[in-house]
Specification:
The protein is 39% helix and 28% strand. With 502 residues, the chain is an alpha+beta fold. It folds into four domains: 45 residues, no CATH class; 102 residues, conserved putative lor/sdh protein from methanococcus maripaludis s2 fold (Beta Barrel); 97 residues, Beta Barrel (Elongation Factor Tu (Ef-tu), domain 3), CATH 2.40.30; 138 residues, Helix Hairpins, CATH 1.10.287. A hairpin with a 2-residue loop joins strand 16 and strand 17. The N terminus is likely disordered.
Length: 502
Amino acid sequence: MCPFDEGPIVTKADTPVTMMKRVAQIVPSLIVVGILGAGWLAVHEINSGDEAETPSGETVSDGDSESQIVTLTEGKSQAANLRVETAARHVIQHTHTIPGRIRYNETRHIDMKAPVEGIVAEVAVKPGDRVDEGQLLAVISSPEIGRARSDVLRLQAELELVERTQARVDQLTSNLESLFRALDEGRDTDEIDAQFAEAALGTYRQELMSAYSKLELVKKNSDSLRPLAESGAVAGRTLREIDTERQVALADYRSTREQVAFEVKKLQMQAEIDTDDATRKLKIAELHRDSLLGYSEENVTGQTAEALARIEVHAPFNGTIETCSYARSERINQGDSLFILADTTSLYVAADIRENDWPAVSLQPQQEIVVTVPAIPDREFTASVLYIGREVTAETNAVPLVATIDNSEGLLRPGMFVRVVVPMGSARQALAVKPESILMHNDHDFVFVALDQNKYQRIDVTTGIDSDQWVEITGGLEPGQEVVEDGAFLLKSELLLEGEEE
């Protein structure tokens, strides 16, 4: 006999107290073992419940075709208002939805700053006002712009003066050229004096006519004495003296004429230099004035101190006054913000393309994308891609996407949160169904296909890429099958209810 059959061996040390301690140590372990065993039995029963024994000992899974068919009564079918579509191939493009924000259109959003230091004399608008291009927004009184305008007026007067001087020099030059031609023709002094009596010749008239008259007198004396000298009535010495005087008079006339021509040319060149210099100074003064104003000013209205110091701030384009920073009589410094003007009929959509959405960087300018706004449900907007940044921002590890969006209805506001649907890769044709046709149960995608009247069968499918409109089917479904779109969830509920009843 085995010694263990003789019963437990109790030593003297096994007192009641000692035995109670041993039992207390063993009981927790037995409880844990019992819980694990009960859990195993429960799982076994659940797994066994998923399969039904057939007479031959084989099992039939839940995927049995008979158990996947839903039959609706006529009343339920009418109430469900099911809609089916034939499975076919469609153009499908995978998309991702990324977050974004509505921003101002940078080309139609400006911060209008004070051009100079001064006092706000008038404010003609308030925040929220719609303004037209060229509309008066405010008036500023500035001594600085008054001095700039005064400089322009002074230089305009100086330019006018030098232009008149140049015009006089040009006229003088023209008259002298005509006089030179008359003198070269050898006309009589009285005839020349009569012809140029009203012509502007300045002091050159006396110089030229005096030298010319002296030459003419010597010529006449020489011509009258020459016959007498030839006849012997006058000594030859006298004739030679007269000829010498004639040569001296001719040289004096030519010298006077050359000097006059030189001085007139010099006057003409100086007048041109003065005119060019005055023109440049005026242009610089006008540029300085216009840089202070921020726009090109044609004429100054009035020449009083108040008129010269007045600056009118006008709207550069149609838009809305977003902010107005100053009131009447407030002092402003150069560069202070007066107004923020924005044209919100066109806005920007700004989003970041991160690594997970990297295929979206293949978007091209002018390509259209879909934008949805949570604040405006059941409405889709279309935006046109403006540009995609070239540099990955270190802070966000993304490149910016900026698109323009039409806001002529005024529904969108800068700062709004939006969702931007960006296409990923290129579009392709594939067998596809509507997203609402796809259902899921126990981690399996499936659709319902219409059979006979009021009968619908569950078919498990494998999906591929998806878009907002279509989901690609890569397995389980054939083209031409009638797939339930609207009401598929009701069929799923009926199918699950029938399974519970069985």
